[in-house]
Amino acid sequence: MTLDVTAVSLRDLTSCGGCAAKADASLLKLLRSVAYDQQGSDTLIGLAEPDDAAVTAINETTSLITTIDFFPPVVSDPFEYGYVSALNSLSDIYAMGGLAKTALLVCGFPKEIQDCEIAACVSGAALACKEAGVEILGGHTVRIAEPIFGLAATGYVNPNEIWRKTGMAEGDLLMLSKPLGVGVLLSTRQPSDEAVALEQMKISNLAARNSLAELGTAVHAVTDVTGFGLIGHLSEMLGIFTLDAQVQLPSQAVLPQAQVLFDTGKRTSADTRNREATDREVLGLTESNLQAALFDPQTNGGLLASIDPALELQLVEQGFITVGKVVTGSGKIEVLSINN
Q1: 170-180, pLDDT tens digit by residue?
Q2: What digits encode the pLDDT tens for the residues 104-135?
Q3: Of 136, 154, 228, 277, which is most buried by a Cβ count within 10 Å?
Q4: Neighbours of 217 (CB within 10 A)
């Protein structure tokens, strides 16, 4: 079906789009503590500890993953907005090691948005889900002041093959499946920069998930990098305070067009928030433009995995980038000089 969609810039309807619109980590911690009571016997992963999705036991070989994610428009085109929103929602399932199965649409649009534009957004999500083998079963739609769109998704994982955020081991390498810089590119609101960012955001994390799954028990911890930036999400991964993470970004870990913007002093509105939000001590931080990507908010950013170093070459051959390592320590993050 071809939709006659009038030219509309959805981004003009919101001040902050994509995962940059996420609430800060301190609020999420508060809300988790308020909502949490006790963990049920069938709950493998819930609110007791933060992670990318919830996991509930079904039987000895299958567990159910549930997650929800939505955000304001990240690009101007409604079809692309829906496509990226869906991929971003499914990414949390991949970050747990699972495969997505079903989804419900989460739709909120102002009355100014025409029905055909909303339909285009849903069509983008439908295509992303179809490509991932995910069936859309329904959803909920409301009229609100600023547009939001996303999915409540479910998937499945073997309970013995769940990837947690925590679980790093001394000597692990930190591997990232996509370069950074999407946030700063979107912040300019220039069509050329948006096009570069969109190309990255439209890359599904399913292939990265499959590459990691081939490594079996060599994968010790995984998350996806989104609104809190690389440092923020790495902070969540450290978990126990007997390890340190050393970060060293090679040039290929940052989109070239984004680095040009960083070099001019350009930052997103989330940069300061992300710097202040981490509850870890971060050593080696400077005002260098070469470090700006560490705090740049990503939308449908790549998977960040802590793996056995023996498998580094296999992942590099599949597009992953080595961005650091795990050493004995006391829960700190150390930013080393940029490795070009």
Answers
A1: 999 999 999 99
A2: 999 999 988 899 999 999 999 999 999 999 99
A3: 228
A4: 8
**Joined tokens for residue 326:** 């795990």
Q: Per CATH, the architecture of 10-161 is what?
A: 2-Layer Sandwich (3.30)
Tokens of 211: 């590459």
- Rounded-to-integer distance, Cα 210 and Cα 136, Å: 22
Structure tokens at 65: 């993953």
Q: Examine domains 10-161 and 173-335 and report if their fold is the same.
A: no
Structural domain boundaries in the chain: 10-161, 173-335
Q: Is 19 a catalytic residue?
A: yes
Q: What's the fold here for domain 173-335?
A: Phosphoribosyl-aminoimidazole Synthetase; Chain A, domain 2 (3.90.650)
Taking only the tens place, the pLDDT of each residue in 141-167 is: 999 989 999 999 999 999 999 999 999
**Running DSSP on this structure, what letter comes out for residue 317?**
T
List, in order, residues 6 or more apart from 199 with CB less than 8 Å away.
Answer: none
What is the layout of strands, in order, in the sheet containing 63-71?
43-45, 54-57, 63-71, 148-157, 99-109, 135-143
Give the Cα separation of 180 and 229 in Å (integer).
9
Could you tell me if 333 and 280 are in contact, meaning their C-beta atoms sit under 8 angstroms apart?
yes
- Does residue 284 carry a pLDDT above 70? yes
Q: Quick check: 101 and 130 in contact, CB under 8 A?
A: no
